[in-house]
């Protein structure tokens, strides 16, 4: 079945540092890929998405590229801020519509 | 507020009691999903509806769990004879279901604690 493996946390960074969170997946067919974010005390929010190979999703300075050859969808941001402190979840959706999530990576950005 | 809403936000119950949660999706969304999230893990799929039809149930959904969406709008998730292992955050999500690459919008969740 479908599964997602993402980098274990927690990750602690200083403001303006470069962030990368690795995500790899196993799926049949051609899934859609997502990054969701959960800020402290809030619900899950869609951060970005990509629907086919080589697509790049981007939002709020974050980017991720759908790499079919390496079955990866790594999340990157060039200069993080304290407000980026959150839990980040990689997820995929196949033809069966349900989302399969990774375990989440907690990111803390220090001023 | 036109987002997904869930009620209650928190529920504490004793082992063996029944509990029911409600989810109100975004009004034009015809797909509705339930997930369960335990501490330190990502959400796990439980079940989903297309309008009022329940189309898939996970193996995680034991016989003690039942979900309904009687008129294709709000949904309820009932857990009978709760066990301590049922303690988790129960999340509801909805999506349009029409060529939207299944972008799901999540509610704030109901946190269940079984004593």
Characterize this entry briefly.
The complex is a heterodimer of chains A (111) and B (115). Chain A is an all-beta fold and 111 residues long.
% residues in beta strands of chain B: over 45%
Roughly what percent helix of chain A?
under 10%
Nearest-angstrom radius of gyration of chain A?
13 Å
Average pLDDT taken over every residue of chain B = 92
List key phrases describing it.
heterodimer; A: about 110 residues; mainly beta; six-stranded mixed beta sheet; four-stranded antiparallel beta sheet; about 0% helix; globular; B: about 120 residues; seven-stranded mixed beta sheet; about 50% strand
Describe this structure in words.
The complex is a heterodimer of chains A (111) and B (115). By secondary structure, chain A is mainly β. Helices cover 0% and strands 51% of the residues of chain A. Chain A has strands at residues 3-6, 11-14, 19-21, 23-26, 32-38, 44-50, 56-59, 62-65, 75-77, 86-93, 99-101, 105-110. In chain A, the strands form three sheets. In chain A, strands 2, 5, 6, 10, 11 and 12 form a six-stranded mixed beta sheet that branches. Chain A is globular. The N and C termini of chain A lie far apart (41 Å). With 115 residues, chain B is mostly beta strands. Chain B has strands at residues 5-7, 10-13, 19-24, 31-37, 44-50, 53-57, 65-68, 75-79, 88-95, 105-106, 110-114. The radius of gyration of chain B is 13 Å and the shape is globular. In chain B, 35% of the residues are buried. Classes of the chains: A mainly beta (111), B mainly beta (115). The A-B interface holds A 4, 32, 34, 36, 42-46, 49, 51, 89, 91, 93, 96-104 and B 31, 33, 35, 40-45, 48, 56, 91, 93, 95, 97, 101-109.
């Amino acid at each position: 079945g479908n599964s997602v493996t993402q980098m274990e946390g927690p990750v602690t960074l200083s403001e303006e540092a470069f962030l990368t969170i690795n995500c790899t997946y196993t799926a049949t067919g051609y899934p859609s890929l997502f990054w969701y974010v959960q800020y402290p005390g809030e619900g899950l929010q869609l951060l970005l998405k990509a629907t086919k190979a080589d697509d790049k999703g981007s939002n709020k300075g974050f980017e991720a590229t759908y790499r079919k050859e390496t079955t990866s969808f790594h999340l990157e941001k060039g200069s993080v801020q304290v407000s980026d402190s959150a839990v980040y979840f990689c997820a995929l959706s196949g033809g069966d519509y349900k989302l399969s999530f990774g375990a989440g990576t907690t990111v803390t950005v220090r001023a | 507020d036109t987002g997904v809403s869930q009620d209650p936000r928190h529920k504490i119950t004793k082992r063996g009691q029944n509990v029911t949660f409600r989810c109100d999706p975004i009004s034009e969304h015809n797909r509705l999903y339930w997930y369960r999230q335990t501490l330190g893990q990502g959400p796990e799929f439980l079940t989903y509806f297309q309008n009022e039809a329940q189309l898939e149930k996970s193996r995680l959904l034991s016989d003690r769990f039942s979900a309904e969406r009687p008129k294709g709008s709000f949904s309820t998730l009932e857990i009978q004879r709760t066990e301590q292992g049922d303690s988790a955050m129960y999340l509801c999500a909805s999506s349009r279901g029409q060529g939207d690459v299944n972008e799901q919008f999540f509610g704030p969740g109901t946190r269940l604690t079984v004593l």
